[in-house]
């Protein structure tokens, strides 16, 4: 078996159209030719983010944009509320600590979404909170947080800062409509690009707050970037090829239609959950599942990491592992980006086969059939 | 559903490694640099064809190499025995007629292999036969002919000319060991390349016969090519990028190991047949199935072409149609070239879903399960 099937939640498969665009002849970035490409990508990003404001492109991984949100919006010692429901919630906490903020943590059991009432309670207990940080989709636990509802609580209050790394392009997260103050994402998820680009959009009041924000920043100085990206291609050397690819991937998404893109992700994730359930496997996030990836507990006594190694090394099927306390217990099946119905079928069929190899009595085709029932819904 | 799943018997999917190699900077073909690439490809082809003689590369489709076999080996009016078991058998007949040969036809029911006794009988009835033409794998009927056995009959007698278009790289067809006098193939099948290159190997006695062969030829003059390909990159401008790709695809096949490549194709085809049978679908070639593609009759009253259109246009899954008298009755599922276990699963799951759309009572997952059982055999 030589063919590779990449079903991880980033990097994700790259469409040939995007790979080809990235192979275009290198051009200089301080030219009208590149400015045109950059501007087209900028306009596409605004639609994707649902904002009239700028969406800035940074040559970094998604974490760079997370750091930019912190360093541009706050001053030392300011209090922020961090909703920590997984590895990426933890990352907000680490960044806040690294920059000398005063984070209050809402720690959530992995696989659960934060409760609105808990956020409300903490905001009341800490009226001096200047920011609330969250993941829209917590990739490590395949859980969706109620971003739209929390945005209502922060309106007029603390800035609401959302990590949309496995949310933007997977589900609708309209920045202006919902009242999000900062939304960040990375290139290697729903945008169907290699890693290396990050994106951030700020609200008007967030831009206002940058003026008094005293944390140090240089590479991620968003005011400097905004000025330079409105008139050219940014303050520092942009990732030229990735931006060629970005223009192509945004155009693919526009051709499919954003509503269709979201519906496809939702359907793939529902199909995967139905398959897991049909196979008697427990879901990691049964109540608030993210449409980007599905976490599944493997049966007791089975080492999930061994199953994943087997899938990757013997079957060329790459799924993702559980992290920290979920290590060895959980696998995560991604359905984000350039994936379709038969990638879900591949993941489920491969899992059925691998589990049998590990001695689990799995009736072949049962999970596949459950997925097929749901994937059929897309067919006219 | 945006993602394309190409499961046709040519063109077949192109591995990124091969696409990348074809994107290398264009170089001039009359250079030591290109000669090196050409020579590496030549050596790889000799291993693949199992011959100590030259395997010539032609910038043409596979039909060009078929024509070359005829025009270089025969003189006007010579008698040839054509085994015609499908569209490509018919093509031998058409070429033989176009060049003024005197073909004797063995016409075989589509989906059946030729019987050795029939070939023996015709050779006895026509002792003046100068050549026997056949397909190793008749793509149109997904049938394998007994090439090894026929080669025993032609030893010392008429030249044995084999169309290996969906055989070379799919199963072992060793030219020297079996005593084949001409073996041709094209680039867009097991070689995992786009269409545009054809290949031909001749035996010593075939080369000998070219000397007296009086049919007209210019572009496909194999003696001219042999001379020029032994010392450079051929008589006319070679398809430079395709040959870059060829070197890469031969190297991928060598890395996998030819025995493994053949075993993979055999397993994928067995899995597809098992799936079809589990779904109650009749096979087009149950007795002598080709490992390159599987022909399946759809249930009575179902228009196979409509199902194929639906698969292609609604599900982005491209399978192949039945031709001529099989049109509307049969579909062909390819498993040739850059395909793996989960391409079989995709084809079967998609077929299950499409058939249900057309009102066939198909239990989801039943065909998939049958395929999984066989695909498992490859797993350590």
- SSE run of chain A: EHHEHEHEHEEEHEHEEHHHHEHEEEHH
Overall spatial form of chain A: globular
Main interface: chain pair and counts? A-B, 42 and 42 residues
**CA-atom Rg of chain A in angstroms:** 21 Å
Backbone structural class of chain A: alpha/beta
Number of helices of chain A: 14
Number of strands of chain A: 14
Termini separation of chain A:
34 Å
- Give the oligomeric state of the chains in this entry, treating copies of one chain as homo and distinct chains as hetero: homodimer
Describe the sheet with the most strands of chain A: 7 strands, mixed
Strand content of chain A: 15-25%
- The structural domain count of chain A equals 2
Order of strands, widest sheet of chain A: 2-10-9-8-5-3-4
Helical content of chain A, roughly?
A: 40-55%
CATH topology of the largest domain in chain A: Aspartate Aminotransferase, domain 2
Q: Indicate the CATH class of the largest domain in chain A.
A: Alpha Beta
As residue ranges, the low-confidence spans of chain A are none
């Amino acid at each position: 078996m030589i063919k590779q099937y990449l079903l991880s939640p980033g990097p994700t498969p790259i469409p040939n159209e995007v790979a080809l665009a990235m192979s275009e002849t290198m051009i200089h970035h301080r030219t009208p030719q590149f400015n045109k490409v950059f501007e087209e990508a900028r306009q596409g990003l605004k639609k994707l983010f649902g904002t009239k404001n700028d969406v800035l492109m940074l040559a970094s991984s998604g974490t760079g944009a997370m750091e930019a949100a912190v360093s541009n919006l706050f001053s030392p010692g300011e209090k922020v509320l961090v909703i920590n429901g997984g590895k990426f919630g933890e990352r907000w906490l680490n960044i806040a600590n690294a920059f000398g903020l005063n984070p209050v943590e809402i720690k959530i059991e992995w696989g659960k979404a934060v409760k609105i009432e808990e956020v409300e309670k903490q905001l009341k207990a800490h009226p001096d909170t200047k920011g609330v940080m969250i993941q829209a989709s917590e990739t490590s636990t395949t859980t969706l947080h109620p971003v739209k509802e929390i945005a209502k609580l922060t309106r007029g209050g603390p800035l609401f800062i959302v990590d949309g790394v496995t949310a933007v392009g997977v589900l609708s997260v309209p920045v202006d409509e919902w009242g999000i103050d900062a939304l960040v994402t990375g290139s290697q998820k729903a945008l169907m690009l290699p890693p290396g680009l990050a994106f951030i959009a700020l609200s008007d009041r967030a831009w206002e707050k940058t003026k008094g924000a005293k944390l140090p920043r240089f590479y991620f100085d968003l005011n400097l970037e905004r000025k330079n990206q409105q008139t050219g291609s940014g303050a520092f050397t942009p990732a030229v090829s990735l931006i060629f690819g970005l223009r192509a991937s945004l155009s693919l998404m526009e051709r499919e239609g954003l509503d269709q893109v979201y519906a496809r992700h939702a359907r793939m994730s529902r199909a995967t959950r139905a398959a897991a359930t049909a196979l008697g496997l427990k879901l990691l996030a049964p109540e608030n599942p993210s449409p980007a990836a599905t976490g599944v507990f493997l049966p007791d006594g089975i080492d999930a990491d061994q199953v994943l190694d087997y899938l990757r090394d013997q079957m060329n099927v790459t799924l993702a592992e559980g992290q920290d306390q979920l290590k060895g217990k959980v696998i995560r099946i991604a359905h984000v980006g350039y994936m379709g119905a038969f990638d879900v079928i591949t993941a489920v069929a491969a899992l059925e086969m691998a589990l049998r190899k590990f001695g689990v009595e799995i009736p072949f085709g049962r999970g596949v059939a459950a997925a097929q029932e749901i994937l059929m819904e897309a067919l006219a």
